[in-house]
Amino acid sequence: MNKKFWVKKIVGFTVLGIAMAAALGYVVMLLWNNVLATVISVSVITFWQALGLLILSKILFGGWGGGRCCGGKGGHWKNEMKEKWHNMSPDEREKIKQEWRNRCNVWKRGSSEQGAGAE
Questions:
Q1: Choosing a second label site near 108 at 20 to 30 A (CA), which of 29, 54, 82, 102?
Q2: CA torsion 15→16→17→18, rounded to 10°?
Q3: What value, to the nearest 5°, has the Cα angle with vertex 18 and ends 14 and 20?
Q4: Which of these, 32, 30, 34, lies nearest to 22 by C-alpha position?
């Protein structure tokens, strides 16, 4: 790929990131000032204080970790499930597969019945 493509992509994602941070900061500011200030009588905050709260919450709670549910920090359950699966007999595996097929078919039947009833 050419260099201009990557430069545009990087600039675009940077602008998008800044816009998202600004929007989140604005939403936090509005919620704080319109909910907390009236409900529990705290003082109102500025936009920059709201951004500071977002950064502080990221540091303290480690949120916004999208896409890491199956790997990285919280992915130990995936390894446990793989181990359980490998320790099952072929009959147990087939039983679980059939159970999930039945569960999925219930949803498919439910949506097709609703569609047929609407006609």
A1: 82
A2: 50
A3: 115
A4: 30
The string of DSSP codes covering 25-84 is HHHHHHHIIIIIHHHS-PPP--HHHHHHHHHHHHHHH----TT-TTSGGGTHHHHHHHHH
| Residue whose token pair is 């816009």 | 19
The structure's pTM equals: 0.50
Amino acid at site 67: G
| Ordered per-residue pLDDT tens for the chain, 119 residues | 688 888 999 999 999 999 999 999 999 999 999 999 889 988 999 999 999 998 998 888 886 555 554 445 557 888 888 888 888 888 988 998 888 888 877 666 655 555 555 44
* Euclidean distance between CA atoms 24 and 53, whole angstroms: 11
Structural tokens at position 91: 């009959």
